[in-house]
């Protein structure tokens, strides 16, 4: 791996070693992914050249403020964007290009290859169906098994996600379960088709701290036992620091810093990451979550400035920042996009 290798407009996928473990081929290879929407005559540049790799059995956290493109980049992998979204770049799962697959092809893969767990289990579950029936249905959507067999498998999944009293809960409705229990059920449904990649999109955000830790421990355990790859999407850097092996920090639809977790937190380089670390979380009633708030205006994805998008809010910005800094591997395994990186002394201050 040569330091100072830059990804500019044309990444060279074969040379990229983002998060390299040197233990075989990556499961997921995302290259220069771009997503644009046109809404009410306005173009929104939601993802602006995202590149990363993910290996089986590893957890990658994608962190950043609200609106930085975390969810859109994940939904792209699941084929869950509106058909009018404009996509470019590449996202290969086990060597197969996902961009451009038909809805039918995508439906076959969704759940089976890649599954997703969202923030609000109350909204994702069917309130009129018993828990067991919902998991059984998810199993039968992907495999031709008898109803009895699927029922037994569903119960086994409830045990796998360590739901207390699974036999009883199997016959209950979502409203009879706590938020943490409902999230365990959502994870069981996500696991119904043995996915190799699980995307947890703010999956613990609406839970209390103790339940959040329990669900994260469960994800970690499943990741190890099933050798599953996990993408953890969160605005919470603390969560990323505690559970993920690698972290990507996104700003305005771009990766701005990437490193193995310990490197990122011990040697933070991006002023934006440092600001996120120092931000005092504020309660956002709409998101039911404590969100980090950084001084200054979040970027307008309809008209991003030339150069570094964080420039208007950055304490270290100079005229040089009007030129986009390349996202490059400046130290072994540590990538960032900044002309004026934070020093270790500043980072520790
Ligand atoms: N269907 C859509 N049409 C138009 N704009 C969209 C659509 N979906 C997302 N966006 C916009 O894309 C940008 C990125 O959104 P995204 O949900 O990926 O952010 P995020 O980092 O996941 O933040 P959050 O944690 O708030 O979900 C936002 O400005 C959002 O409004």
Task: Give a verbal description of the structure.
The protein has 349 residues and is an alpha/beta fold. The protein folds into two domains: 5-113 and 195-348, Rossmann fold (3-Layer(aba) Sandwich); 126-194. The protein contains twelve helices and 15 strands. The protein has helices at residues 70-78, 103-109, 121-124, 131-142, 147-160, 166-169, 179-190, 209-226, 237-243, 261-266, 271-278, 344-348; strands at residues 5-7, 28-39, 42-54, 59-63, 86-93, 96-97, 114-117, 197-201, 229-234, 246-251, 254-260, 281-284, 289-292, 327-331, 334-336. The protein has a nine-stranded mixed beta sheet with strand order 1-14-15-11-10-4-9-8-7, sandwiched between helices. α4 (131-142) packs parallel to α7 and α5 packs across α7 (179-190). The longest helix is centred in the middle third of the chain and has 18 residues, at 209-226. The model is unreliable at 1-17 (pLDDT under 50). Adenosine-5'-triphosphate binds at residues 37, 39, 44, 46, 64, 66-72, 82, 235, 301.
Task: Label this structure with key terms.
single chain; 349 residues; alpha/beta; Rossmann fold; 4-stranded antiparallel beta sheet; 12 helices; 15 strands; disordered N terminus; binds adenosine-5'-triphosphate
């Amino acid at each position: 791996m040569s330091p100072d290798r830059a990804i500019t407009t044309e990444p060279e996928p074969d040379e990229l070693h983002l998060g390299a473990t040197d233990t075989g081929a990556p499961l997921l290879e995302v290259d220069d992914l771009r997503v644009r929407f046109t809404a009410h005559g306005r173009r929104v540049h939601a993802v602006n050249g995202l590149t990363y790799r993910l290996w089986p059995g590893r957890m990658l956290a994608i962190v950043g403020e609200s609106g930085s493109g975390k969810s859109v980049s994940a939904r792209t992998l699941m084929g869950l964007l509106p058909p009018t979204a404009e996509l470019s770049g590449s996202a290969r799962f086990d060597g197969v290009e996902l961009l451009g697959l038909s809805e039918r092809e995508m439906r076959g893969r969704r759940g089976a290859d890649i599954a997703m767990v969202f923030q609000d289990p109350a909204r994702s579950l069917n309130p009129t169906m018993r828990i067991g029936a919902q998991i059984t249905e998810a199993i039968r959507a992907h495999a031709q098994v008898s109803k009895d067999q699927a029922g037994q498998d569903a119960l086994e999944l409830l045990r796998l996600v360590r739901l207390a009293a699974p036999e009883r809960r199997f016959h209950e409705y979502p409203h009879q379960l706590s938020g943490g229990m409902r999230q365990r059920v959502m994870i069981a449904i996500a696991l119904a088709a043995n996915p190799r990649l699980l995307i947890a999109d703010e999956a613990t955000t609406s839970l209390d701290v103790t339940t959040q830790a329990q669900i994260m421990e469960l994800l970690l355990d499943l990741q190890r036992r099933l050798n599953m790859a996990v993408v953890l999407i969160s605005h919470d850097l603390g969560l990323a620091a505690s559970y993920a092996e690698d972290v990507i920090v996104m700003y305005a639809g771009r990766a701005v810093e990437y490193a193995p977790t310990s490197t990122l937190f011990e040697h933070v380089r991006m002023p934006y990451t440092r600001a996120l670390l120092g931000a005092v979380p504020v309660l956002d009633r709409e998101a039911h979550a404590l969100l980090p708030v950084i001084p200054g205006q979040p970027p307008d994805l309809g008209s991003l400035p030339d150069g570094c998008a964080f420039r208007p809010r950055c304490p270290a910005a100079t005229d040089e920042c009007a030129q986009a800094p390349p996202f490059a591997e400046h130290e072994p395994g540590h990538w960032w996009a900044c002309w004026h990186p934070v020093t270790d002394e500043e980072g520790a201050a």
